[in-house]
Amino acid sequence: MSGFEADAGDADWRPVARTRTYELVIDRVEEQIVTGALKVGDRLPAERDLAKMLGVSRAAVREAFRALEAQGVLRMGVGTGPDSGTTVAALPSQALTRLLRLHVALANFPVADVVRARLMLERESARHAAARARPDDLARLAELLDEMDSPDCDRARFNDLDTEFHVRIAEAGGNRLVADMTIAIRESMRRPLLAAFDALGDDWDPIADELRADHRAIYQALRDGDAEAAEERTAAHIRAFYRHGWAQDDL
């Protein structure tokens, strides 16, 4: 009996069809994860063994493993010992965020759809952050506000700070999935937002002042622990800017 049976003996490795073989190998690995037959830390069979089980080439297994490693699903170790071989990884938040960000960026969703998604997620984050934000969370938010107030803060820097401000609130809310989705959507809009900032021309300064005031109001609600105010101010802030930048009146 191989070491694999001891690690993931419940996995069902039936042969796959031979069309688009490496993708079907990926499907079979994902199937085992979704059904719970494979869990974080479980070791997959060696390429040769798994190829035989599935009735495919080693090259197809290798390509599937590499694709899943790139997604953060698998960890491939070399040599011998407990860290060698191919194991199921704990998908880091950064990997999920990257995939979501790319999906949002490439799918060409209408701006209004993206904004509505932001509204749903960030209202939830702000409400929870009002109850759960720690002193260090609030301290970092205050630092970001001060940096945005700096006369040396140009539009690109403002955009980065603005992004981090919203991301920090999402993280302070305590729901990891909501935070990751918020981060993905907000960061997918980083470049379009900067383009919108640039397009404002001479109108930028008064609008930037509005954004700073909105951020301060949201921050104050978080400091006060006022969940309702934090939610309402966040929603109003998001709607107001998109009306400026994209003339969206139906949000």
Molecular structure report:
The protein has about 250 residues and is mostly helical. It folds into 2 domains: about 5-90, Winged helix-like DNA-binding domain superfamily/Winged helix DNA-binding domain (Arc Repressor Mutant, subunit A); about 95-245, Four Helix Bundle (Hemerythrin (Met), subunit A) (Up-down Bundle). The chain has helices at about 5-10, 20-35, 45-55, 60-70, 95-105, 110-130, 135-150, 155-170, 175-190, 190-200, 205-225, 225-245, and strands spanning about 75, 85-90. It has a two-stranded antiparallel sheet. Helix 6 packs across helix 8 (about 155-170), helix 6 (about 110-130) packs across helix 9 and helix 7 (about 135-150) runs antiparallel to helix 11 (about 205-225). The longest helix is centred in the middle third of the chain and has 22 residues, at about 110-130. The chain is elongated, with a radius of gyration of 23 Å.
Kindly report the name of the CATH homologous superfamily of the largest domain. Answer: GntR ligand-binding domain-like
* Fraction in helix: 55-70%
Radius of gyration in whole Å, from Cα?
23 Å
The coarse silhouette is elongated
Number of domains: 2
Structural class: mainly alpha
DSSP summary, beta strand count: 2
Q: Tell me the strand percentage band.
A: under 5%
Task: Please name the CATH architecture of the largest domain.
Answer: Up-down Bundle
Oligomer: single chain
Number of discrete helical segments: 12
- Which fold name is given in CATH as the topology of the largest domain? Four Helix Bundle (Hemerythrin (Met), subunit A)
Output mean pLDDT.
Answer: 85
Strand order of the largest sheet: 1-2
